[in-house]
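User: My advisor asked me to double-check a structure prediction for RING-type domain-containing protein before group meeting. I don't want to rely on an old file, so could you generate it fresh from this sequence?
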Amino acid sequence: MAEAMSSTRNGPLCPICNETLKVPRTLTCLHTFCQHCLSKYIQDSDCSLVGKPSFNCPVCCRPTYPPAAESKQPKEWASLFPQKTALLVLLGEDKAKVDFFVILVRLKNIQL
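Assistant: Sure, here is a fresh prediction for RING-type domain-containing protein from the sequence you gave:
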């Protein structure tokens, strides 16, 4: 289940650097990170370069498959994920709303 993001007056915080998100990228598990932080995490991770490219989410450890990563180097994978969606911005910091949304997405098998 996704955790509610921490935030400051300036907006949500990246769980890696604990600073306001810069160029936010959202993984399929709905956790969001700064593009730079995610890129560094991926490069430092033991990501799979054989078979389907993947790495584990830094928060929930769910296997994550970057979209269209087969022709890209791991340092480029973070840029392949979508920027934080407007819907998640609207959900904000309300953990109940975020949890409900995550459950709904998973039940309906919706691709974001």
